[in-house]
Amino acid sequence: QVQLVESGGGLVQAGGSLRLSCAASGSVFGISSMGWYRQTPGKQRELVAAITSGGSTNYADSVKGRFTISRDNAKNTVYLQMNSLKPEDTAVYYCNVRKRFTRVDDYWGQGTQVTVSS
To answer: 3-state DSSP helix/strand/coil percent for the chain, to nearest 5?
Structure first.
């Protein structure tokens, strides 16, 4: 019903930057919040950043001041600008989209690997 395509992951040295993108397509009417989660082996998937349809944002304490989430509602796309990357940021990053239409549904991207070398 809603398809998410992620891009922008890769390998970068500590202190570098990456920009992740997630484009939603299909039945996009009713999309409310969009966000990014990350997961490493042995750790639960955790919220990195989220943004509501009204533009309010929320960040994990570990990324505040370094990451910026934004969205282009016309393109149904959410971005995560990651600056001053640290090795601790290494993880698979997943895009999340919440839709409120006939019901509340969550959709997940396939995940994109971000690796930060020291």
So the answer is: 5, 60, 35
What is the rounded distance in angstroms from the CA atom of residue 11 to the CA atom of residue 14?
10
Q: How far apart are the C-alpha atoms of 59 and 107, rounded to whole Å?
A: 20
Computed over every residue of the chain, the mean pLDDT equals 96
Would you state the pLDDT for residue 102?
87
Question: Of 105, 85, 86, 87, which is closest to residue 97 (Cα–Cα)?
Answer: 105
pLDDT over 90 at 52, yes or no: yes
How far is it, in rounded angstroms, from Cα 69 to Cα 93? 13
**pLDDT tens-digit map of 5-39:** 999 999 999 999 999 999 999 999 999 999 999 99
What is the rounded CA–CA span in Å between residue 66 and residue 112? 19
Q: Provide the β-strand partners of residue 114.
A: 10, 91
Burial class (CB in 10 A: 0-12, 13-18, 19+), 29: exposed
